[in-house]
């Protein structure tokens, strides 16, 4: 492989590896508190109406719930505060890949996930979750900057003492989307490589 090919391969590798980084969000490393709001800037997002809870803690408010059935990793997951719609957003576009969802108190809870871009809804998915387990939901929505999640309906599971429409979310996977500047830098780099190759060819004639 000649020098020009090596430079092109290096540029492409750097571009794809840095601009499409995948991120697993588990909510497990925020703190050792039993329950609290997910802080802004956690994993680069602004979080609204999201709490992180340890459903095994006697002070979490979820110790007698199906939230533990929604756990995927360790002891923490996210829930929508008070059953209210919750959202997370970023100042730069990203891809929503997947997440595990469950219900804390209700069976047949209807969860609606909306992907937004610039204030406009560009993707929507509706699914049902129960307090007895968790669902892996796959989205692969690109170029969204806000994800809004709401829950309605369902019936209270007789094992649990609340009828609040709390969904659970764990092991959220997102990935970065290349900014226009990234594409511009890649094109500029490839153009420079092409220019160097032409000059080298001209000087050899």
UniProtKB/TrEMBL annotation:
Pfam families: PEP-CTERM
Alphabetical keyword list: Signal
The UniProt record lists the keyword Signal: yes
Signal peptide segment: 1-21
Coiled coil location: none
Domain Ice-binding protein C-terminal: residue ranges: 177-200
Annotated protein name in UniProt: PEP-CTERM protein-sorting domain-containing protein
Organism: Nitrosospira briensis
């Amino acid at each position: 492989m000649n020098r020009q090919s090596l430079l092109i391969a290096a540029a492409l590798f750097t571009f794809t590896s840095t601009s499409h980084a995948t991120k697993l969000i588990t909510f497990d490393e925020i703190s050792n508190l039993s329950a609290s709001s997910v802080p802004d800037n956690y994993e680069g997002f602004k979080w609204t109406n999201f709490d992180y809870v340890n459903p095994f803690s006697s002070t979490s408010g979820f110790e007698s719930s199906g939230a533990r059935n929604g756990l995927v990793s360790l002891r923490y997951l996210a829930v929508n505060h008070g059953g209210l719609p919750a959202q997370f957003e970023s100042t730069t576009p990203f891809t929503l890949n997947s997440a595990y969802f469950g219900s804390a108190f209700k069976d047949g809870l209807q969860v609606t996930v909306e992907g937004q871009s610039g204030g406009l809804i560009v993707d929507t998915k509706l699914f049902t979750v129960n307090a007895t387990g968790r669902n892996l939901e796959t989205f692969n929505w690109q170029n969204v900057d806000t994800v809004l999640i709401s829950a309605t309906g369902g019936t209270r599971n007789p094992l649990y003492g609340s009828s609040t429409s709390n969904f659970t979310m764990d092991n959220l996977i997102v990935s970065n989307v290349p900014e226009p500047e990234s594409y511009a830098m890649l094109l500029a780099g490839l153009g420079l490589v092409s220019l160097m190759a032409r000059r080298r060819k001209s000087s050899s004639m």
